[in-house]
Amino acid sequence: MYLLYFAFIILIPLWAQWKVKSTFTKYSRISAATYHRGAEVAREILNANGLYNVAVEEGRGFLSDHYDPSSKTVRLSPENYHGHSIAAAAVAAHECGHAIQDAQGYAFLRFRHALVPVANLGSNASWILIMIGIFAHLSGMLLLGIICMAAAVLFQIVTLPVEFNASSRAMDQIASLRLVGSGEEREARKVLNAAALTYVAAAAVAVLELLRLVLIFTGMNRSED
């Protein structure tokens, strides 16, 4: 049973990563009809929403695209910054979706930002406390580790509406500004949907691990009674 469980939590993220890479690779080879570079798509969306203060920069690494709220910067990986593909347009639009969220004070984005220090602390400390609690048979230590892990899991869960909303905003911008051809919007959505799978998989695995530890804790308490 445990072997099946661990196979499941390992295979799901691997499948999600494969789906993202394969979908991105497919649509990064297809040029958008508008032939805009990803950087141009991002700049057009930002300007259309009055976000002239948000910079668009070339980042480093494969699929390293992100929006940095501290410096108000959309950073696109080299292939998306310079690329003219449907994938580049979709990813650039998604990161601009985060910039629009930030400018409009989107509640879930603000909540996620507030959770960052708590989630980082919980993620770093949880497994140390959990392992001590399990091997030393200290239920109180295990409970503390579970609470720390719960903070990191909450961050993963809150990330889901943030990412889905950013993709929804991205598609609205792509359609209204006609940033890809009229028949290419469905392909752009496929890229965004594949990317969303990684967040869904991460959240699902995190929740399952938390539930497993809660069951271990309750079992430990029963054995102590």
UniProtKB/TrEMBL annotation:
<dbReference type="InterPro" id="IPR007395">
    <property type="entry name" value="Zn_peptidase_2"/>
</dbReference>
<protein>
    <submittedName>
        <fullName>Zinc metallopeptidase</fullName>
    </submittedName>
</protein>
<keyword id="KW-1133">Transmembrane helix</keyword>
<keyword id="KW-0472">Membrane</keyword>
<feature type="transmembrane region" description="Helical">
    <location>
        <begin position="127"/>
        <end position="155"/>
    </location>
</feature>
<feature type="transmembrane region" description="Helical">
    <location>
        <begin position="196"/>
        <end position="217"/>
    </location>
</feature>
<keyword id="KW-0812">Transmembrane</keyword>
<dbReference type="Pfam" id="PF04298">
    <property type="entry name" value="Zn_peptidase_2"/>
</dbReference>
